Amino acid sequence: MDKIREFTDGDYPEGLVVVARDQTDGRGRFDRRWISSSGNSLMFSVLLMPTADQLPYINMAAALSVVKAIEPYTSGKPSIKWPNDIRLRGKKFAGILIETDSTADKLMYAVVGIGVNLDLDVSRYSEISSTATNINSNTDREMDSTTIIGSILTNLDRLYKEVKAGRSLTNQWANYLDTLGQNVLVRRGSTVFQGLARHVDKYGNLTVDLADGTSIVVTGGEVTFQG
Is 143:31 a contact under the CB 8 Å cutoff? Predict the structure, then answer.
């Protein structure tokens, strides 16, 4: 993602893809460390130039691109934990980070970072050993990095064209959300609340019904499932 930001100073086109063979300082949402291993993880970023109105659908397009690339090869249906953790059997195998640059009145570009656990041995990392998995532990046949990246990028190209044409991806994306109907704990900065994740609006914001009968629309934050 940092490398693409360097490239934006030059004459590089929308759709530029940068692939990392290894990462020494990978990051995820909330500035957390993204754990990866050379040869066992896929790490790549894509330069896009949506409008500000199209930006909410870029997250959906990226998540759907990964899900649809993996789904034909898995015995279980991949799911999305709001807003963009990609999971199999309740464990995360891929994540998405979107960073933007803008002026006062214009979105200049969006960098879509995608990380996928291909063969990563999650048991070696205590912080993710109970919550993460990898693709090849969950597929009917071993998949290689070229196949997966090619499929994800093909899907992203198609879905991004839908976004640019003004079509919504909300229903497609919501169909894979495993968060809806769940009791959740939401953290937004220092604020924490619990409730039932009821639905998402057209922009992907999450509505949570609280115990007192009120509802809150969550536009960002961390959501965890409660028993």
Answer: no
Whether 134 and 195 map to the same domain: the answer is: no
Which is it for the CA torsion 20, 21, 23, 29, positive or negative? positive
DSSP character string of 93-136:
EEEEEEEEEE-SS-EEEEEEEEEEESS--GGG-TTTTTTB--GG
Number of independent structural domains in the chain = 2
Distances in whole angstroms, Cα of residue 128 to Cα of each of 62, 134, 135, 221:
22, 11, 15, 19
Give the residue, 56 or 30, on which the prediction is more confident. 56
CB-based contacts of 72, cutoff 8 Å, min separation 6: none
Q: What CATH number is given to the structural domain containing 220?
A: 2.30.30.100
Range of the domain at 99: 2-174
User: What is the predicted pLDDT for the residue at 26?
Assistant: 66
DSSP track, 69-101:
HHGGGBSS--EEETTTEEEETTEEEEEEEEEEE
- Give tens-digit pLDDT for 4-32: 888 877 677 899 999 988 777 766 665 67
Q: How far apart are CA 33 and CA 135, in angstroms?
A: 20
What number of CA atoms fall less than 13 Å from residue 120's CA on the CB side?
24
pLDDT tens-digit map of 120-133: 888 888 888 899 99
The one-letter amino acid code at 207 reads T
Whether residues 108 and 190 share a domain: the answer is no
Contact 190, 97 (CB under 8 A): no
